[in-house]
Amino acid sequence: MTLPNTSIFALSICALILLSGFHPKKITLDSNYLTDTTNVLLQEWTGPYGGVPAFDEMTVEAVKPALEQGMAMSLEEINAIANNPEEPTFENTIVAMERAGEELGRVFTYYGIYSSNRSSPEFREVQQEMAPKLSEYSSKISQNEALFKRIKAVYEKTQQTPLGGTPLEDDQQRLVELIYKQFQMNGAELDEEKKKRYAEINKELSKLYTQFSNNVLADEEGYVTYLSEDQLSGLSEPLVNAYAKAAADRDKEGMYAVTNTRSSMDPFLTYSDERDLREKVWRTYYSRGDNGDEHDNNKIIEEILKLRKERVGLLGYDNYAEWRLQDRMAKTPENAMELMNAVWLAAIARVAEEVEDMQAVADAQGDDITIKPWDYRHYAEKVRQQKYDLDSDKVKEYLQLDKLREAMFFVAGELFNYDFTPVPDGEVPVFHEDVKVWEVTDKTSGEHIGLWYLDPFARTGKRSGAWATTYRRHATFDGKKTVLGSNNSNFVKPAPGEPVLVSWDDATTFFHEFGHALHYFSSEVRYPTLNGAVRDYVEFQSQLLERWLSTDPVIENYLVHYETGEPMPQELVNKIKKAATFNQGFATTEYLASALMDMKLHLADPENLDADQFEKETLAAMNMPEELVMRHRTPHFSHVFSGEGYATAYYGYMWADVLTADATEAFDKAPNGFYNKELADKMVKYLFAPQNSVEASEAYRQFRGRDAQIDALMRDRGFPENTETRHRSLEDGRN
Fold this sequence. Notes:
single chain; Neurolysin, domain 3; two-stranded antiparallel sheet; 29 helices; 7 strands
């Protein structure tokens, strides 16, 4: 997942209209407003590599005054642009906006760290107080009539033929169109009464998003399942040691702690022989935000849905999905639903086959059970061993986190010509001792490209999951900006001196998030706003990079046994590849259920909607298999309800997966496969470097020579091809 990017959920509302690169030249202000030079969060970044965040000096106490002052300074800059007496031009309006917000951008970097990586009760109080103020700040920009008048004037000039004055270049034209459309989509043309209500709604939503996020985090921190030594049956020694450390970190020496995060829960459900405990851990994890206490999120969801519908209604849209998808690849919710429905029936049919296989194993063992959701991972693993003679625990012995990181660096070198060199501890400030930093350079020229920060381990105050974000993005319009990119994971920290062994799924996710980082580093855009991509395209690059994990050079050189250092034996490699589509019913259905739920919630009438009941009734109507659950149940669906980054956009992972499957087939057919130099260069040139400076469908056509075809996804997942969708492309669906 990429945070808006990817991407901090708590900032999505306030950042929605902040069309700023955050690190450009400063606009000269007419006022006497002075920067508080003592607040480190506002200070210009100093030190090596073009300046780096002072993560070692940040404090929670500095956040509120820094945000308040940063917003005030940014608004003065915006007002200076809006009230410029000169005729609106691309330079004095659009480029000036790209230069605005330097100080506030620096504050947002620290704010994001506190929100995602180092949250605390003290910060959450500040977050709750500042959320509505940040929303008000955003509204003051999006509803600035004089500013929008200038933006519209520049936009209308670009639509003239011939263009008056010097024609804009393609990326400049794209920048104008994106900014104009963003303002238009966010109420810039509403009358005063509607603008007032629009701003009020955003303010209310900002509070609810923060509350939702903090409730989920509270349940992740507040619920821990402690085990005694006689309850460890089935668990590997490294996992037992990791659980022991987690307990010791919580002052429970001699016990073992399964924390309420996916990285801790998932292996326990897979390997534990204690069915009662599996059920307890499963229920604890999937009831986050749904415990009927002060952290229950159901009423918050209901209110969010009402406010979202009311807000887009002010703009003339029937529902939130219709408004949100207009500038995405899918264009309409109907197109997104068509893709999901095309896959859903095949997915649940595969689940039925998987459950039949698991039940047969359980019966043969005399377990006298009926497969339940807390059994799925456990018996799927037994089926994997039986059907493919593949033991996931044996696979993990060859998946060391450090070696996987080296493998990612190798792939980046082969495809992007990058070198990653460790930065000595202490040379670059970090916000936690677990964070390590590497310098990224061009292998041929030695040119500095950026810094890569890695924060790999779970801890109290860090939100769950895995994500990528940037502290500084690429731009060249005011001199090239070195990129500061970050990957963040929640691996269980091992006991001292032991390696971190991860599952194949976790290794895939590690590569996925690194794909986002490579997307940041490879940017060649001129203007900050052109970084990133629309939500149903932004996951494509990272999903594509996952495919290099299973390539021969990676397997042969980096997937080595953690004790002997021997490469993974070919027999085991063959088993992994043979089982590549194993359990795709589970993986596809748990994801797709969440994506469909996201869309259906926003297409429904929110009046009198009971969130809990809606989830149950919708899943029943979809014939959701009772043996598994949505990947993200509604009460903890942070992608959708901690902000708006993925709201009615969670389908985007599947939309991007169609592109991924189709692009993979191009590599499969190329000489030297995934290491075909010509195709790799095209991938970087057309799919990574342009970011949002080129419309996504056009960028893909430049790479592939045609639109992506949906049946590639069905083949990739081992599902039977649907004759109705065979050879159909995503572009066909859009039209």
